[in-house]
Amino acid sequence: MCLVFSVECVLNRLQQVLETDEVNWRHILSCLSHLLIYHSRTQSCLTDLLSGLLRSAFDAYDVEKMITLFLLARQASLEGPAVFPSYSDWFKLSFGGSSSYHAKSKKSTVFLLKFLSDLVPYEPPQYLKVHVMHPPYIGGKYRSLLQEYVTLAKTRLRDLKVSLEETGIFEVVNGSAGAVE
Q1: What is the dihedral of CA 150, 151, 154, 156, to 10 degrees?
Q2: What is the DSSP letter of 170?
Q3: What is the CA radius of gyration of the chain?
Q4: Beta-carbon contacts of residue 113 (< 8 Å; ≥ 6 apart)
Q5: C-alpha–C-alpha distance, residues 166 and 172, integer Å
Q6: Beta-carbon count within 10 A of 60 CB
Q7: Per-residue exposure over 128-162, b if at least 16 CB sit within 10 Å of its own CB, e if not
Q8: What angle do CA 109, 179, 51 make, to 5 degrees?
Q9: Using CB atoms within 10 A of its CB, is residue 69 exposed (0-12), middle (13-18) or buried (19+)?
């Protein structure tokens, strides 16, 4: 399918599938990886799709769209920086600025931080480390909410016996140290 149809056609079909109730994530993520590897235009098309999901998730405060957004971005980042930005770069670009969707209101800020907090018990350490080392932009009035999340994430990292200082020359920066389920 990825070789026969255009990138836009396949991504449109994937988006339709993602809007159904039951999704076979293994097939979706495998298809996305193949697209990224075999079609050079996939990165820009996927970036547009992720931007649309991000906007839609914050417009409706839709947790399912946030989950979809994070899963697709993480899978894409696993393919390496030649194909898609690292997870760290994607996260900083999506949430690191004052013009990001979550920075527009208290409700949006709370939505993002609650989403990230709810993931903490299940989150692989490499993603928690990105969130702690490059936290989302949070306005001054709501910094205490961010601090609560960072404390929770650091506690989880300690529980997993993972140090934030465990960085070295061979560190995997694109998030591929753990598998996406």
Answers
A1: -110
A2: T
A3: 16
A4: 136, 138, 145, 146, 148, 149
A5: 11
A6: 10
A7: bbbbbeebbebeeebeebbeebbebbeebbeeeeb
A8: 40
A9: buried
Please give the model's pTM, rounded to 2 decimal places: 0.86
Unique residue bearing structure tokens 């989403």: 115
- Which of 9-23, 45-59, 65-79, 136-150 has the weakest average pLDDT? 9-23
The span from the CA of 46 to the CA of 89, in Å, is: 15
Q: End-to-end alpha-carbon separation of the chain, Å? A: 23
CA–CA gap between residue 3 and residue 24 (Å, rounded): 21
Tokens of 158: 């300690």
The model's pLDDT over 34-91, given as tens digits with 9 standing for 90+, comes to: 899 988 888 999 999 999 999 999 999 999 999 999 999 999 999 999 999 999 999 9
Q: Are 18 and 50 in contact (CB under 8 A)?
A: no
Closest CA to 49 of 65, 64, 33: 65
DSSP state of 4: T
